[in-house]
């Protein structure tokens, strides 16, 4: 005969054990997926060459041409901090940032967002499109449509920056005057989940939504 409440405790222990088993199965599944992805990448590199996979375009395996006017910042910090950060560039291209990212699964924001959250999104491989009141309504509409259909992007207005439209990835940035500028597509194609990101593939959902 058990003690009063012993059945409840046993049930709780069984439930906890099952929870731990499910977590272990999930971890094992992730390990298998990661192993498969790494093996596939190694095989692809062996067949086609790492340099071709990462840095070349479709023109005979030659390195992709630089994007005119694109700027780069190496060696950016990646600490999680709370509070406001005084970034040395506008918009910021990386550095220490808030522990919570801004949702960046094709999210279009109609009001300014916090730099500290957006920088965390850049770390995950997102491209951040910002625009001032000098951008035309047609350009804003065109960019909004492009962002909406492109995972790992986000868009928001910004009061001050060097150009009417700026595209920012981790450590990379280019400014343009029009959405029809060919550098818009070039930047998105190259940097959405590009090799510049410290944590490509990390989630773009479940973060800040406004």
From TrEMBL:
Keywords: Membrane, Transmembrane, Transmembrane helix. The chain crosses the membrane at residues 33-54. It comes from the Bacteria. Residues 1-31, 191-210 are annotated as: Disordered. Coiled coil: none annotated. The keyword Protein transport does not apply. Pfam families: DUF3105. Residues 15-27 have a biased composition (Basic and acidic residues). InterPro entries: DUF3105. This is DUF3105 domain-containing protein.
């Amino acid at each position: 005969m058990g003690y009063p409440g012993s059945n409840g405790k046993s049930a709780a222990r069984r439930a906890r054990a099952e929870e731990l088993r499910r977590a272990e199965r999930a971890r094992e599944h992730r390990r298998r997926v990661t192993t498969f992805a790494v093996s596939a990448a190694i095989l692809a590199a062996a067949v086609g060459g790492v340099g071709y996979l990462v840095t070349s375009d479709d023109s005979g395996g030659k390195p992709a041409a630089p994007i005119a006017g694109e700027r780069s910042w190496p060696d950016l910090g990646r600490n999680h901090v709370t509070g406001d950060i005084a970034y040395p560039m506008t918009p910021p291209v990386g550095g220490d940032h808030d522990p919570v990212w801004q949702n960046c699964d094709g999210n279009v924001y109609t009001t300014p967002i916090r730099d500290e959250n957006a920088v965390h999104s850049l770390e995950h491989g997102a491209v951040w499109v910002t625009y001032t009141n000098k951008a035309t309504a047609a350009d804003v509409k065109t960019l909004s449509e492009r962002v909406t259909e492109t995972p790992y992007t986000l868009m928001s207005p910004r009061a001050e920056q060097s150009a009417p439209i700026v595209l920012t990835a981790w450590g990379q940035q280019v400014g343009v005057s029009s959405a029809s500028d060919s550098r818009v597509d070039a930047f998105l194609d190259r940097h959405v989940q590009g090799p510049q990101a410290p944590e490509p593939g990390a989630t773009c959902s479940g973060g800040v939504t406004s």
